[in-house]
Amino acid sequence: MECLKLFPALVSSKRRNKKGGKEIYVGTKRSPKSEVKFAQFIQDNWDYALENDYFTDEEMLFLLRVQRFMQFKSNCLVDNIHSRSAVPLTQKALAQRLKTSAPKISGIVNGLVEKEVIVKAQEHRTEGTNDRTYARFINPNIIY
């Protein structure tokens, strides 16, 4: 009921609903053909992790910031979530997009890999270079 105090119009809508018997929905209906991408936190699991100090502050901030790079349905961190041929982000590219250092991202990612929140796919080596590329996936039991 706390949110109803913040939105008096909802309170009056609820009262009309009880008297008039009409079902009132506040929001917009999502079309099955909608192109809007979204990610959602699995609230019970997120709450459990926070209550048990599972994440460091840096890890929580990282997860909040990288959800915008999560490819819909796969949870892979990619360069363009709207592209059908999106490319997984390297840690260097991830650091650049988050405007922080690669060593800092490396430490956070490695910590989340140990906690099984991030899964790295097998490495891929680019021909003629020593570069290693891993696709990184966020555990869908945390964010989906």
Please list the strands of the largest sheet in the order they lie side by side: 1-4
Report the β-strand fraction as a percent range: 5-15%
Biggest β-sheet: count, sense, barrel? 2 strands, antiparallel
| Amino-to-carboxy terminus distance | 28 Å
> Based on DSSP secondary structure assignment, what is the total number of beta strands?
4
Residues in helix, %: 25-40%
Average pLDDT score: 80
How would you classify the helix and strand content by structural class? Answer: mainly alpha
Shape: globular
Task: Give me the Rg, rounded.
Answer: 20 Å
- Discrete helix count: 6
The low-confidence runs, each spanning 5 or more residues with pLDDT under 50, are 1-17
Order of helices and strands: HHHHHHEEEE
